[in-house]
Amino acid sequence: MLKITLPDGSVREVAPGTTPADIAAAIGPGLAKAAIAARIDGELRDIGRPLEQDSQLALVTAKDEADALELARHDFAHVLAEAVQSLFPGTQITFGPATDDGFYYDFAPKDRPFTEEDLPAIEAEMRKIIAANKPLVREVIARDTLIAQWEAAGETFKAQWAAELPQGEELTVYHSGDGWYDMCRGPHLASTGKLDPAAFKLTRVSGAYWRGDQKNAMLSRIYGTGWLNKKQLAEHLTRLEEAGKRDHRKLGAEMDLFHLQQEAHGSVFWHPKGYLIWRELEAYMRRAIDDAGYREVKTPQVMDARQWETSGHWGKYRENMFVIPDEVPNVEDEGPLVSDDADWMALKPMNCPAHVLIFRQGIKSYRDLPLRFYENGCCHRNEPHGALHGLMRVRQFTQDDAHIFCREDQIVEEVRAFCALADRIYKDFGFTYSIKLALRPEKRFGTEEMWDKAENELRNAVAAAGLNTPEYGWEELPGEGAFYAPKLEWHLTDAIGRTWQVGTIQSDRVLPDRLDASYVGEDGERHRPVMLHRAIFGSYERFIGILIEHYAGKFPLWLAPVQAVVATIVSDADDYAKQAVEKLRAAGIRAEIDVRNEKINYKVREHSLGKVPNLLVVGRREAEEGTVALRELGKEGQSFLSLDDVIERLAKDARAPDLRGL
Questions:
Q1: Phi, psi dihedrals of residue 241, rounded to the nearest 5°
Q2: What positions does the entry give for Zn(2+) binding (predicted)?
């Protein structure tokens, strides 16, 4: 008999071959109906998979939402693949994972790429499969047998995938009813009927290369969103609609902030209004880091490949680096412009090795520490064209980057102080956040003792800052640290509930050792400093993109590129409008004038589209009385106030939050 321990500590003895579904039924009919899967010794498994040994068992229900959603989305992907092959015979399947809000599946169509016009028919077929309540049955199958089956069925992509799996690995397939099957590790729900047919929607179609390599065949990828019930789907679709309205690329064009074009893939052309937001953020951050005792530095864009080899980045990160030859190009002969024996250099993808080189200049004493070097550092990373996305993923970006060189006894206090600084800054922008600790990855530098120490220091610092609580979403993430250090991550929640991983601090003992950084200790001996890598915005480009979407373009007054526009109704008020703009600018308010020969309703619509927060409308009467009709973005109607009162009202909020009390 097997001994199965339940979450309450009770133990049930059951015969080998008993399933978690059997145990749920023995406990009660309500649980039998609610249970959808099981965790066996922490591993998520099918509810109908037989138990094999003494185990810890936790039954999973829809209340365990994260697990339930993962199962449902995985099943929706399989149902999608079955539906497509039913409607379009000859289509080959590849693979289709669950995603953060749904699922996708990549197909090799027989005749033509799929289009969005195909989606309604595919959705209808998926609902038929769900209604048929087909059992989803796991089968362990020999590797060579499975490869032969895929080849016989003309599934060349699946055959290739199976052939690349290790010889000793257990291969499994899941059958949908008596016919269709797919290679999959699982787990799955017990049957297709466990899915809610009203809780999914296919959203779009795109191209995708097999295995993500542009040298391989082009496939058709069908995306969908999947949930546990119709209400969750409706809420998600509402969020998507709102996100579409907030898309930073759309608003960036409407507000004339920036643009991108193929002549500079992944690099941003900042327009005056967009760069003004950048400058406000940069000035704000400089004041913050100056107050916190950082010293600003500037380092080279290009460094010798040998430096990157020593740091470890050349081996770990080279595919994402722009590499250039260190020689004068040959411009006389046709053909290659450089020789085969050129030395190599690289555009920096990060600032940290250069900051170590600054630290190494001159002898440092234990009394000099901590040293906090800050840089608005421009970096380049060779991201694939298909991965680029507006401001959110670019090739050229500027980090609000800093590295703190400190002694072992200073680490906890330095990290605690950073937590307090990040908290203040995020709250100035109206964000709430959660904080996570990313722990050692499988492939890493350094000893286990070093990683134990570094992880505990970050835990202790967060506790000292009072942030290791449910209020701040404290969580530890196994395996998600950098190859050289564990890290704390700040995940911001925006106005429509999306999360963005932005800030980070990493406790690194590897890079100072690899690059031979040292200081003279109180004992007169050389010691390695600990290097804390930290950022709050992450990158200016991405942070501005997040802000555009968070505020839906309606920036707080201090960040708005244009804080007020004075617009005339009639030309008789032009002189008064000019005087008003001068007084606004003298008060530190970024103001513009609109005296075009256009109707006022046209001007109002145009400046509303441009998200100008304050429109001061003036006509003949306002010019005579020294007043304005104030229209505030997002509010109905207008207020009639004296110009001086409007200036007094705007002047305070037109300043950055940290300057308002000065």
A1: -60, -45
A2: 352, 403, 533
**b/e for 254-291, b at 16 or more Cβ within 10 A?**
ebebbebeeeeebebebbebbbbbbebbbebbeebbee
**Range scoring the smallest mean pLDDT among 207-216, 232-241, 398-407, 435-444:** 207-216
pLDDT in tens, 7-29: 999 999 999 999 999 999 999 99
Task: Kindly list the strands in the beta sheet with 530-535, ordered across the sheet, starting from the edge strand earlier in the chain.
Answer: 295-296, 371-380, 396-406, 530-535, 499-508, 487-493, 432-438, 475-477
Angle of helix 156-164 versus helix 143-152 axis, rounded to 10:
160
**Residue 419 is assigned to a ligand binding site:** no
Q: What is the DSSP string of 204-242?
A: EEEEEEGGG-TTS-EEEEEEEEE-SSHHHHHHHHHHHHH
- Alpha carbon distances (Å) from 226 to 38, 61, 80, 201, 500: 21, 17, 11, 7, 21
Quick one: tokens of 633?
Answer: 């973005």
Residue 25 exposed, middle or buried by CB count within 10 Å (0-12, 13-18, 19+)? middle
- For 94, counting Cβ atoms within 10 Å of its Cβ (0-12 exposed, 13-18 middle, 19+ buried), the class is buried
Burial class (CB in 10 A: 0-12, 13-18, 19+), 109: middle
Phi, psi of 62, rounded to the nearest 5 degrees: -65, -20
Cβ proximity of 23 and 166 under 8 Å: no
- What SS3 class is residue 534? strand
pLDDT tens for each residue of 108-156: 999 899 999 999 999 999 999 999 999 999 999 988 899 999 999 999 9
Coil/strand/helix, residue 119 = helix
∠ CA 423-376-438, nearest 5°, is 50
Q: What is the DSSP string of 582-628?
A: HHHHHTT--EEEE--SS-HHHHHHHHHHTT-SEEEEE-HHHHHHTEE
Count of alpha carbons within 13 angstroms of residue 469, beta-carbon side: 5
pLDDT for residue 526: 96
Q: How confident is the model at residue 325 (pLDDT cuts 50, 70, 90)?
A: confident
- Nearest to 109, CA basis, from 224, 218, 215: 218
The two tokens of residue 190 are: 């017990």
The pLDDT of 639-657, averaged and rounded, is 94
Q: How far apart are CA 275 and CA 186, in angstroms?
A: 49
* Residue 533, marked binder: yes
Residues 556 and 417 sit within 8 Å (Cβ to Cβ): no
Which are the catalytic amino acids?
A: 352, 381, 399, 401, 403, 487, 533
Question: How far apart (Å, rounded) are the C-alpha atoms in residues 451 and 463?
Answer: 18
pLDDT tens across 301-324, in order?
Answer: 999 988 888 888 887 778 889 998
Report which of 569, 565, 567, 564 is spatially closest to residue 619, judged by C-alpha positions. 569
248 known member of a binding site: no
- For residue 488, give the nearest of 443, 433, 407, 539 by alpha carbon: 433
Gyration radius (Cα) of the chain, Å = 30
Does residue 273 register a pLDDT over 70?
A: yes
Q: Which tens digits make up the pLDDT trace of 552-596? A: 999 999 999 999 999 999 999 999 999 999 999 999 999 999 999
Rounded to a whole number of angstroms, the distance between the first and last alpha carbons of the chain is 75
pLDDT bracket for residue 178 (50, 70, 90): confident
Local structure of 13: helix, strand or coil: strand
